[in-house]
Each structure stands twice: as structure tokens, then as C-alpha cells.
Amino acid sequence: MQGKFLVIEGLEGAGKSTAMAECETQLAARNIPFIKVREPGGTPLAEQLRLLVKAEHSESIAPETELLLMYAARAQLLHNVVRPALAEGKWVLSDRHDWSSQAYQGGGRGLSEKTLGALAEIVLKDLKPDLILYLDIDPAQGLARARGRGELDRIEQEALSFFERTRAQYQKLAAAADNAVTIDAGAELAVVTGSIRQALTEFLTRSC
């Protein structure tokens, strides 16, 4: 039996780690075999690409370069980890996936849908998440949370307007998707956790 592909998406400070932990708890409670991954990253090579993307450099990184690095890391993860796990019947719980590229490099950087679509077709092929939990948060609130965790990386240091464009693209994607649930990540933690649990429970009821 093919496994299921669950993805958590959202801006910095949206609470993706909390959502991942709640999903882990729900899957474990039902004895569902699963693995968890993150993007960019998840394999030795993909983790090196993650460092390249997030680090400061002595030269400016072109939006196209950033995008290609993201998709290179994604290709490695899907080929070496995600697709084999799904084929074995395991569920895959992913911290970010393709929506991040569409939101950050598409909405935030302004790269065209044509460019993003061409890369997605090459890398994703027929793969589509079974469920996307989109954690929606005001960028200013999310960035304040991120600053509270420590030093910001290169992308997290972008101007607020960048994250506003990124959020707008996320919202557009969520509104058009039939496999996504939007969670109000700006609410109190107990409320957010409850919303995640409800969405996942409904999905599990349909799937198991």
C-alpha cells in the first residue's frame, strides 16, 4: 500500500515545529509507520545545499540561483528518501515542500509561474501531497517570534514587504487547493494545536 505525503507550510514563526510534533503524536497513536523530513535538506547533499541557501555570501545570490538550489535539494530528497518511503507504505511528514518555492521565490522574489512550473514538472513529476497544513500568520508577528529564537538567516533578514508578498502567494495557493487546510497560526497555542489536531483527525478518518 502506498504511503501518504503530509506537508506543513508557512512563514517563519508560524509554528511549523509545533505542527510537526502534533502530527507525529497523532500518527504514532495510530501506529502508522512514518518518517519526517525537512526542506531544503533531508539528505547529506541536500543539507549542504540548505547551508548554501541560508548562509550570507560575499556576492548577491540571484533569485534564479536560489530557486535552482531549492529544487536541486528537493530532487535529492524526493529521489533518495520520500519516494522510496512512500513506495514502502510509510507516511512522510515534511517540514516544507514545493509551496515554499512558489511562495518565497515566486511571490517573494517575483519569479514567473512559467519558470516555477517548468522546474516543478521536472522534479515533482506526478507527486502531490495528500494533505497540506498551511499555517497562516501575519509576517510581522511571525518574524517577531523568529527573532525570539535567535539570529536570523539570510532569507529571514529580508524586508517585511518580501514576506507580505510571500504570504499573499501562500494564501492564493491555499485558496485554490483541494488538498490543503488553512490554520490560523496567529491564535493562541492551544487553539492552533486544536485546529491542527482536528484537521489531521479528519484526514486520518478518511484515509485509514
UniProtKB/TrEMBL annotation:
Keyword Transferase included in the entry's annotation: yes
Binding positions for ATP per the UniProt entry: G10, L11, E12, G13, A14, G15, K16, S17
InterPro entries in alphabetical order: P-loop_NTPase, Thymidylate_kin-like_dom, Thymidylate_kin_CS, Thymidylate_kinase
CDD domains per UniProt: TMPK
Signal peptide: none
Superkingdom as given in the UniProt entry: Bacteria
Molecular function terms from GO: dTMP kinase activity
Known role: Phosphorylation of dTMP to form dTDP in both de novo and salvage pathways of dTTP synthesis.
Protein's UniProt name: Thymidylate kinase
Species for this entry: Pseudoalteromonas fenneropenaei
Lineage start: Bacteria, Pseudomonadati, Pseudomonadota, Gammaproteobacteria, Alteromonadales
